[in-house]
Each structure stands twice: as structure tokens, then as C-alpha cells.
Design brief:
single chain; about 170 residues; alpha+beta; Aminopeptidase; six-stranded mixed β-sheet; 5 helices; globular; binds coenzyme A
Length: about 170
């Protein structure tokens, strides 16, 4: 993600979250936070390719944290979210993270399914974490990212993802 992407990111952000981040939050993550790494997914190649997804991580020593991930509502269910998560897992691992965490709304079954597919488990609940409706957050975690077992799991899921993407294109 670059500063030039923030306008398109904000459109998806406001369609995706009841308490959306302000533009300044993305700008400050991109320009001031050395621990932050943000990515976008586009539909197609080249300068005119539409931005349809984005996500971010913080990596602090061996700990990675997924700060956000969202796909444009019209493009959900097409594996953009999964591709972005895979990319963020690789970025985390290549930056020496051994484990990764995130918070998700307790009601966000779609996100829970995506994360569980990639080996995340719920480790705790933060009561009334979300200020708009008092909803609980679940804290999810995946560990030993640099171990043999996780590498094999990720490789298998990526083969399945590639196969699903190529059959969807056909
Ligand atoms: C969560 C989100 C990023 C998923 O992205 P997506 O591109 O729609 O999801 P994908 O097509 O990549 O699907 C990947 C996996 O997610 C889960 N999933 C996706 N859509 C689902 C649905 N409608 N119902 C249940 N699970 C679903 C499944 O596990 C799926 O894998 P599978 O089909 O092999 O079972 C997207 O729904 C989104 O932007 N939601 C709003 C923002 C948000 O809640 N972000 C998460 C904050 S923690």
C-alpha cells in the first residue's frame, strides 16, 4: 500500500467496518510506523487495476499482529482475502515472526473461518472490546510459524488456493 492507495482503501474501509479508521490512521501507519507493513490486492495488472482488498501487519521481533484486512463487499468470496492473508503470513515469516495474533469481533464468523483455515485458534476473549456496540473481541493466535509443520500446512493450502483460483478463472 502506498499513500496514493489510501483514497481507494478508505472507500473499502467505510463499506467494511462500523467503526472505520480515519484516513490519517492509514497515512500514519504508512509514513511513521516502522513496524507496520501494509499491502493491497488488485483485480488485474497494471496501473489501472482496481484496488479490491487491503491488509496490514505489525512485526515486532518474533511477534506479528494482523491490524486489519478487508475486501470490497462486491468482491468477497473470490479468495482475495485468502490471498492477502497468505501474503501477510509470508511477510511475517520472512521478517522473523514465529507467531501471529489478531482480534476479531465475536460475531465475525467469516473472518474466524478464514483464520482457522490457516491454523489460528481462539486463545481468549476481550470483553466489550468494540466501543460501538460493546461486542466482545476474540483473540486468535497461530504459533510456530517457522516450524516444519506450519510450513507444510501453508504449502498445502497454497496449492489448494492456486487450484481454486485457476478453476475459477476457467
Ligand atoms: C473476512 C474477509 C476479509 C474474507 O475475505 P474474502 O475474500 O471474502 O474471503 P475468501 O473468498 O478469500 O474466503 C477464504 C475463506 O474465508 C471463509 N469464508 C469466506 N466467505 C465466507 C462465508 N460467506 N461464510 C463462511 N466462511 C467464509 C472460508 O473459510 C473461506 O475458505 P473456504 O471457502 O475454503 O472455506 C472479507 O469477508 C471482509 O472483508 N470482511 C469485512 C471486513 C472484516 O470483517 N475483516 C476481518 C476483520 S478481523
Amino acid at each position: 500500500m502506498s499513500n496514493a492507495d489510501v483514497r481507494a482503501v478508505m472507500r473499502i474501509e467505510s463499506l467494511s467496518f462500523s467503526t472505520s479508521w480515519p484516513t490519517s490512521a492509514f497515512q500514519s501507519e504508512l509514513n511513521d510506523n516502522k513496524l507496520a507493513h501494509y499491502f493491497v490486492g488488485r483485480d488485474g495488472q497494471g496501473p489501472d487495476a482496481e484496488l479490491v482488498a487491503y491488509g496490514g501487519i505489525w512485526v515486532i521481533l518474533d511477534d506479528a499482529h494482523i491490524t486489519t484486512i478487508a475486501v470490497h463487499p462486491d468482491r468477497r468470496g473470490l479468495r482475495y482475502g485468502e490471498q492477502l492473508l497468505v501474503h501477510m503470513l509470508h511477510e511475517s515469516i520472512s521478517r522473523s515472526a514465529s507467531w501471529i495474533t489478531l482480534e476479531a469481533r465475536e460475531s465475525n464468523e467469516v473472518a474466524h473461518n478464514l483464520y482457522r483455515k490457516y491454523g489460528f485458534a481462539t486463545i481468549s476473549t476481550r470483553r466489550a472490546y468494540y466501543s460501538d456496540n460493546g461486542e466482545n473481541a476474540v483473540v486468535m493466535w497461530a504459533g510456530n510459524l517457522r516450524g516444519e509443520l506450519y510450513a507444510r500446512r501453508l504449502a498445502t493450502l497454497e496449492i489448494e488456493l492456486d487450484a481454486a483460483l485457476s478453476s475459477e478463472v476457467r
